[in-house]
Amino acid sequence: MTGAKAEAIVIGASAGALEALSAILPLLPADYGLPVMIVVHIPPDKKSVIAELFQAKCKIEVREAEDKEPIRGGTVYFAPPDYHLLVEADKTLSLSADEPVFYSRPSLDVLFESAADAYGPNLIAIVLTGANEDGAMGLKAVFEADGIAIVQRPEEAYAQGMPAAAMAACPEARVLSLKEIALYLTEIEKS
Amino acid sequence: MSEKTEDIEISLLLEALYQRYHYDFRNYAHASLKRRLRQALEQMGFGSFSALQESLLHHPAMLPRLLNYLTVQVSELFRDPTYFRAIREKVVPHLHTYPSLKVWIAGCSSGEELYSFVILFREEGLEQRTLFYATDINQDALARAEAGIYDLDRIQLFTENHRKSGGKSSLSDYYSAAYGRASFDKSLRKQVVFSDHSLVTDAVFAEAHLISCRNVLIYFDRDLQDRALGLFKESLARRGFLGLGSKESMRFSAHAGAFADCVRDEKIYQKRAP
Question: Which of A31, A41, A90, A191 is the catalytic position?
Answer without folding.
Answer: A41
